[in-house]
Structures are given as structure tokens and as C-alpha cells.
Design a protein that fits this description.
9 helices; mainly alpha; 174 residues; de novo design (two linked rop proteins)
């Protein structure tokens, strides 16, 4: 996408060198840079922040491309697309931005199994390796241990569903 934007903005007027051309180029570089920076982060939680930043930059690029089209910049490319001929440069390139992450929810069984695994580990860094492998942070573990201590997981464990059976009271007839 960035290369396509650089090629497209090369045909913009010189008066836009420090305006729309500069903004478009910086925003398109920001999309790829945010994805790379997120990939280079050490945890999944940190990684998941950066696709959102990249998506914002992508929207910025799309808005600026719409403005440039309205001003008639790069219009020879748009005319080629409308007439059905193959355009040399697409006006709105495809983006490599991934979908946003979904909020994870953890069952009581999962939380208890992670606590048990963390409690049974031996050696320096074993708990950190467990958390990293699961994509969790140490506050998760601390909160879950506190919840276990307070007995909150007992209420979250699977219970039988349905109506409670009531037994008639047995009266002593003596």
C-alpha cells in the first residue's frame, strides 16, 4: 500500500508537497509500521493494541484519498478505472490490517487450572513462561488467586440445571 501511495502522490501538484502529499505518505507508512511494531512486542496483549492503531491510519489514508480525488489529484487513474481499462495504480489500495481482537473471557475451570499449574511450577521463570504461553499477564493470576481465596470460583463452577427436587417431609407417626 505504501509504495502505491508514493507512486500516486508523485503526480500531485508541487503545492501539495507539504500538505496532502506529506500526510498521505506518512499515514500509509504508519499502517505498515504499526503492524511491524506490534509484531515485535513481547506479549500478545501488547501486540493486540497495534492493529487498532494501524486501522486508524488506514482510515486516515482512505479519507485523504477521497479528498485528493475530490480535488482532482490522481484523477487520470480514476478515469482509467471508470472506463474499464486496467489502471496502473489503484486509487485505494488493499490494506493488510487484521481484524480487531476479541475480548477474551475465561471460565472458572480455566482460571483454576492456570492457578494450579502456576502453583505447581518449580524454577525461576516458570510462571512467566506459563503466562506468556497462555497470553496472560501477572495481574490475571493475582486477581484469580484473590478470587479463589474469597471463594468466588465456587459460585462459578458448573451446577446442575433445572428444577430442584423437593422431598416431602417425613413425619414421625409415633
Amino acid at each position: 500500500m505504501t509504495v502505491a501511495i508514493y507512486k500516486l502522490t508523485a503526480s500531485f501538484p508541487a503545492s501539495e508537497k507539504f500538505g496532502l502529499t506529506n500526510q498521505l505518505r506518512r499515514a500509509s507508512v504508519s499502517v505498515a509500521s504499526n503492524m511491524a511494531e506490534g509484531y515485535g512486542r513481547s506479549t500478545k496483549g501488547e501486540y493486540h493494541q497495534f492493529p487498532g492503531h494501524a486501522r486508524g491510519s488506514k482510515c486516515e489514508v482512505e479519507t485523504q484519498l477521497a479528498i485528493s480525488e475530490a480535488l482532482g489529484f490522481g484523477s487520470e487513474n480514476r478515469q482509467c478505472q471508470r472506463s474499464g481499462r486496467r489502471a496502473v495504480r489503484p486509487l485505494v489500495p488493499d490494506s493488510e490490517v487484521v481484524a480487531p481482537p476479541h475480548c477474551r473471557r475465561f471460565s472458572a475451570e480455566y482460571k483454576l487450572s492456570i492457578i494450579d499449574q502456576a502453583d505447581s511450577t518449580a524454577g525461576v521463570g516458570a510462571v512467566g513462561a506459563l503466562l506468556c504461553r497462555e497470553g496472560l499477564y501477572s495481574p490475571h493470576l493475582a486477581t484469580w488467586r484473590q478470587q479463589r481465596k474469597q471463594g468466588e470460583f465456587d459460585a462459578l463452577t458448573a451446577n446442575k440445571r433445572g428444577r430442584r427436587r423437593s422431598f416431602p417431609a417425613i413425619r414421625d407417626s409415633s
